Amino acid sequence: MKNENLVNKAENILKENRVAIYLVAYNAEAHIEKVLKRIPEWIAEKACEIFVIDDHSKDQTVLKAKNLQWPKEFAPLKIYKTPYNQGYGGNQCLGYQYAIKNKFDIVVLLHADGQYAPEALPEILAAYSDTQTQAVFGSRFLRPLDAIKGRMPIYKWLGNRILSFIQNGILGTRMSEMHSGYRSYRVNALKQIPFQFNSFGFDFDADIIVQFVAKKFKISEVPIPTYYGSEICHVNGIPYAWNCIKTAIKYKLMQLEIFYDPKFDFRSKDQSVYTVKKSKHSLHYHIRSLFFDPGTKVLDVGGGTGEAISFHHQQKGCKVTCIDKEQHCSEEGIKHLKADLNQPWKSQLGPSKFEVVFALDVIEHLLSPEEGCQEIFNSLESGGKLYASTGNVAFLPLRIMLAMGQFNYGRRGILDLTHTRLFTFDSFRRLLKNAGFKIDEIKGFGPPVSDLGGRSFVMSFIERGGAFLAKYWPRLFAFQILIVCTRTNSLEDLMDQTFMNDSNVENHQQEHKRVA
Which residues, in sequence order, are CB contacts of 164 under 8 Å at separation 6+? Predict the structure, then answer.
């Protein structure tokens, strides 16, 4: 009854979807005919297409496949050969791109060496009855002892279990096996991931798992039999294991905005990733905790919606203006102005000047930070306060990465892709000083780990440690730099005070007479 239900589900999937069965092949002349013949006949009849991509084999794999007497009532069998060896991952890239181009709905990956049983295709297809499932993997470890019964070597059994455990731990997943080559995907899901950037080696499979995890696509697993026979394993175990772990670590570092890799970036081009920092150790929390007299005129340069900073000071009685490239109106009581901050914008504020200006993580985005600082200077009244922040490019992890020959821009953080200038404590202080500001205070803040990586005990502990180090050794351990400075008198201010005030001259003359 169970098998009958399984077959019915698989048949429905074949009926309602354009299903392709894709065989990757390399030096598989001894196995490919048997593998093709082992595909259940009713699946071979109802599939849309069965295609083989031979990765420039050195043997007669292609000839063996072409000479196979393929029944006419079966789905078309198409044989292709790459012009030169692409590698296991490169072959998959071709196959999935082929599936997209030919508008298949589901593509099932088989290995031409017979290691994965074509007889398990009904289980693979039936799992797509769950409409939320975007990928189905055959697992040899849903029933762990079956893998040993199938003659999997003990060292491979242990290695698979340990490696899958490590990857699950890093990614926060619960897959029974991450190293099965028996895989299938909804083609619409493949369209949404940049698999063309993945490794061309065997760790391509690790890359695509991370991509599905990042997209929050559901991966289902079904039990499959294990078979180890005379096939030749082309995987070099130790480098493969390291590459799989490295892939998971890279993805995790991307979530902390320390590393960037385009294959794990799924933002739309216009999607903002700027987030409000809520951690008590963050720069935003510090700025929100400041108090100014009610009625203080505050300007938030590049403040976005005002949610991060402006709204909090407006609630405390300040008269807040927020200026940004988009005119957001999410917070009532705040005056929002739209301006291209790379162009002169002071004139849009009118003749009035402000007592406090916030320029948080904005100066480094400007095409000319010097001109931007001048606009800020002109918008402040003499003696007004500027709170300016930026990332610290001399942050220890970045120094280590640079020493290792790595300098990776990311989606946000210190090496944000949209940054035009990078600063250290000294260069940021010099920029503001040259713009006419007197430096009052320089503070360092550690990375807002809990905002980026979750509020677990471990993350909170790391964040507190980072905050401590940033406070006492800021040049090395500060993730962000905050400089508080005072707007000094400009030359025009001094001109007004010296030459344009006649009462100063009269008072000086009267004082001189009394002294005489």
Answer: 141, 175, 176, 177, 178, 179
Mean pLDDT value across residues 113-123: 92
C-alpha distance from residue 390 to each of 231, 429, 482 (Å): 56, 11, 7
Please answer whether residues 178 and 214 qualify as being in contact, where contact means their C-beta atoms are separated by less than 8 angstroms. Answer: no
Q: What is the CA radius of gyration of the chain?
A: 32
How far is the C-alpha of 87 from the C-alpha of 235, rounded, in Å?
A: 11
Distance from C-alpha of 142 to C-alpha of 157, rounded to nearest angstrom = 13
Angle at 270 between CA 135 and CA 374, to 5 degrees: 145
**CATH 3.90.550.10 describes domain 2-264:** yes
Q: CA 28, CA 455: separation in Å to the nearest integer? A: 50
CATH 3.40.1360.10 fits 283-490, yes or no: no
Task: Give DSSP secondary structure letters for 171-210.
Answer: HT---S-S----EEEEHHHHHTS-GGGS-SSTTHHHHHHH
pLDDT tens readout for residues 131-154: 999 999 999 998 878 788 777 888
Backbone angles phi and psi of 484, in degrees to 5: -100, 125
Could you read off the pLDDT of 242-285 as tens digits, one per residue? 999 999 988 887 776 667 777 887 765 444 445 667 778 889 99
Instruction: Give yes or no for a contact between 205 and 87, defined as CB atoms under 8 angstroms apart.
Output: no
| Long-range Cβ pairs for the range 363-366 (8 Å, 24+) | 363/388, 363/390, 363/421, 363/431, 364/390, 364/391, 364/416, 364/419, 364/420, 364/421, 364/422, 364/423, 365/302, 365/341, 365/416, 365/418, 365/419, 365/420, 366/341, 366/342, 366/420, 366/421
Sign of torsion over alpha carbons 159, 160, 165, 167:
positive
Q: What is residue 414's three-state secondary structure?
A: coil
**Max mean pLDDT range (33-37, 228-232, 348-352):** 33-37
Range list of β-strands (E), 397-501: 437-445, 480-487
Rounded CA-CA distance 168/198 in Å is 19
Domain with CATH 3.90.550.10 in the chain: 2-264
pTM as predicted: 0.71
272 vs 463: CA distance, rounded Å: 24
Asked if residues 152 and 228 have their Cβ atoms less than 8 Å apart, the reply is yes
Distance CA 173, CA 164 (A): 10
Residue 212: φ, ψ to 5°: -70, -35
